[in-house]
Specification:
Number of strands of chain A: 7
Strand order of the largest sheet of chain B: 2-1-3-4-5
Distance between the termini of chain B: 16 Å
Low-confidence stretches of chain B: none
Strand order of the largest sheet of chain A: 2-4-5-7-6
Distance between the termini of chain A: 73 Å
Oligomer: heterodimer
Largest interface: A-B, 23 and 23 residues
Shape of chain A: elongated
Radius of gyration of chain A: 27 Å
Low-confidence stretches of chain A: none
Order of helices and strands of chain A: HHEHEEHEEHEE
Largest sheet of chain B: 5 strands, parallel
Largest sheet of chain A: 5 strands, mixed
Mean pLDDT of chain B: 89
Strand content of chain B: 15-25%
């Protein structure tokens, strides 16, 4: 009897040691896999950094000189030359946008995208951006740019200033691309939210009178490589990046066709929210 | 007659140096450039430049090392950095206090605006 107990205990001990050894092996394997993942993550970040440097450096002279030649009038002797320069300038800017978008997407997917938050006046940022666009579109389209807000004072938010500006530019560029006439209204509202304790939010809507969003595109609008249409160009990454940035701030972004709310209205509205701290 | 401000550009990319020189000179500045940071340091004239624009990633001596060496000779000139790199904050360089970084590519108007603001114009 005692012999059997001792034998059982011994076997139990042996199994225990075997299990510990197994666990030890698994832990070592996991540690090794973790190290490999860290190394790959580091390689990916280094690749993004090198790619950014190598893509962006040659764009600088193209943009700078095309811009200079357009302004100088050095080779504006014929309309054709001016047109050629406009094409170079437009496409170099597009290449810059493409490199920015691809690199942002790579950073978002590798988890290395980070925000630099600071306090700033959102109202001032939006009105300044609208002034830039007014000068730009007055020669191209019959469009009115309007700012609307019930907030009369400054709207101070704590967010990544450059990234919020990037989102507003992206949404305005899209609205302008898809709207030939009518208006684009930027509406800023404060949303009180005392119910679930999330705190107040600021809502920014860009409402246009353009072509609207096709129903088959609407559900996948904020995924990669989706554009409202193939006509207007663009990388198809802008809305994906905007959504990622907004969510990193703790906000959200959505879109709808205006006829969903009022059947007489054309166009679409894109809204994003940002927490007010 | 207004005195033209002097700017030193150090970037290992020759075309970047040339373009910055053209754009800045077009806006009334006098520009000297070097594609080699060691040469830029050897030939550096103290208290001569109003603004110094340094690329960050350069062979032999990076922009931060060059900044430190220049500061030993000249504490007066404004110095800013220019880079096409991402994740600059990840790089283990020590940023000087109140640093300004110009990100490439930059449009001419934006470049001039930053340069003017650094020179308090």
């Amino acid at each position: 009897m005692i012999k059997a107990i001792i034998s059982n205990s011994f076997n139990h001990m042996v199994n225990l040691i075997k299990n510990i050894k197994k666990q030890d092996k698994i832990i070592k394997e996991l540690e090794k896999a973790n190290e490999e993942l860290k190394y790959k993550h580091q390689l990916k970040n280094e690749f993004i950094n090198i790619a950014a440097h190598e893509i962006k450096t040659p764009i600088q002279p193209i943009i700078a000189l095309a811009e200079l030649l357009r302004q100088d009038g050095i080779i504006h002797n014929t309309e054709k030359n001016k047109e050629y320069l406009d094409i170079i300038f437009r496409n170099s800017k597009r290449l810059k946008q493409l490199s920015d978008d691809v690199l942002d997407t790579a950073r978002i997917e590798s988890g290395s995208f980070s925000l630099t938050k600071e306090k700033f006046n959102l109202k001032e940022m939006i009105t300044n951006i609208l002034k830039e666009y007014e000068q730009f579109i007055q020669h191209i389209k019959n469009l009115k740019l309007i700012y609307e807000s019930s907030e009369t004072n400054q709207i101070i938010i704590e967010a990544d200033r450059n990234r919020v500006s990037q989102i507003i530019h992206n949404l305005l560029n899209n609205a302008i691309n898809f709207t030939n006439e009518g208006s684009i209204i930027v509406i800023v509202e404060r949303k009180k939210d005392n119910i679930n304790g999330k705190g107040d939010e600021i809502l920014v809507s860009i409402k246009d009178t353009g072509t609207g969003i096709a129903s088959e595109i609407l559900p996948k609008l904020f995924t990669k490589f989706t554009t409202k249409s193939s006509i207007a160009g663009g990388t198809g990454l802008g809305l994906f990046i905007s959504k990622s940035i907004i969510e990193m701030h703790g906000g959200s972004i959505w879109a709808f066709n205006n006829d969903e709310k009022n059947k007489d209205e054309r166009g679409s509205t894109f809204t994003f929210s940002l927490p007010l701290k | 007659m207004t005195i033209k401000e002097r700017i030193l550009v150090v970037d290992d990319e020759l075309d970047i140096c040339l373009v910055l020189k053209i754009v800045l000179e077009n806006n009334g500045f006098i520009v000297t450039y070097y594609c080699n940071p060691i040469l830029a340091l050897n030939e550096f004239k103290s208290n001569f430049y109003d603004l110094i624009i340094l690329d960050i990633q350069m062979p032999n001596m990076n922009g931060f090392q060059l900044y430190n060496e220049i500061r030993k000779k000249d504490i007066k000139s404004k110095i800013c950095f220019v880079t096409a790199s991402e994740n600059i904050t990840d790089i283990t360089y020590k940023f000087p206090p109140g640093y300004t970084i110009i990100k490439k590519p930059i449009e001419n108007n934006d470049l001039i605006r930053i340069v003017n603001s650094l020179l308090n114009k």
